[in-house]
Amino acid sequence: MKKSRIAAALFLSLTSASAFSVNDNSYHNEAQLEFQSSSENFSDGDWDLNYRYYASPVDQSKVPYALSGFLAQSSSIGAHFKFNNDITDYRTYGIQGQYVFDSKWYIDGVIDASDNNPDASSANNATTYGIGGGYYFNDTSVVYLTYRRTDQSQGMEDTDRYTLGVKGYLPVKVTEGILMGAELNNYHYSTAGVTSTTDYNIYADWYITRPWSFGASYTLEDQSDTDDIFSINTAYFLRLTDMLSARIEVEKQLDPNEDGVTGKLILNGRF
After folding, report:
1. What is the pLDDT of residues 68-100, one digit of tens each?
2. 63 exposure class (CB count in 10 Å sphere: 0-12, 13-18, 19+)
């Protein structure tokens, strides 16, 4: 509880401060400290420290702040470390990189490792690695295909995931624009029961201003015993100084059996 209160107090103090005029300078480096939790159990949230370097300068002066990295279409490499301090003592860390060719085709790769309750006899470790690629078919849109493999310890099921997706940003004259996307995910499991599943996800985020967005997503699964998932969200990106910003993201799943909301408090640095 103490750490979550510190996170909330820090964010509120930053957002309540008077923001002077800031310059939207281009950047190569982006570092973030995130706290993710739910209103039902706020004290047991997850912390995530992540960093990304972009080979080409990222322009954030004319586009929604949250989309500047995606719209840069730049080669990049990043790393993260995520953890919590509840009874599972969950920790995960990894790296991810993307190389974009002059033709706007790209390849990417990722590797993640996680430890769940590492000091207990029931500890479960997992490793995820994957490759992928795609094509930026215009200045604001991409189509992509990825493969991810997750290997579990302690007899847990291993998973292969194949994803085909497309997303694009459409500027509009009124407000800023709309980000739209769709994904098809196919999962294969190592268990003797259900060996594969498929889900379909569509989403849209309307950027009313460059800092503020409102969106929705819908996920349909092919299993008869699972419910479709529909959620709405809103996010705000508050510029504090030339290099420092604060972000808040809130999501609500529209299901009678789901209480509360989930969200993130983020401290963002760009330089």
Report:
1. 999 999 999 999 999 986 666 789 999 999 999
2. buried
